[in-house]
Amino acid sequence: MPPFRNVQDLQDDPKKFIADFYTSFTEEILHSGDDPGAIVDRFHEPGFVQVADGNVIDREKLTAHLRPVRKNALASRMEVHDALVDGDLLAARYTLHVTGRKADTVSDVHFFGRFAPDGRMREAHVFSRTHRVDAADGGQPADGG
User: What is the pTM of this model?
Assistant: First the structure.
């Protein structure tokens, strides 16, 4: 089971909660042999909806998205800069670093989400800007920004 199992963890330390949520989710996707749909169900309530950069993602779309992620991503690391909580609502700003088979990326993310009492995600709105990382520039975004 993931380390966050109740909304009290969200209240106590929202930065740790969101980092643990995504780190655990990503680790299971990348390193377990479990079906991606079963992993989605462990981390998300039935009927959850995520809107990512204007794209509506439900369970089926997220599960389909995770299959190529599993093949192409090698590792990820998350730096949470800010996180605020109000009841079951979490707002966070973080940077996601992904090491991929073909390219590395860095994403600046603004996250607004609601969580169930058991720690599963109910809904999320995510706004991000992703950059390819150029190893020749010491890991700096290839687009300069």
Answer: 0.84
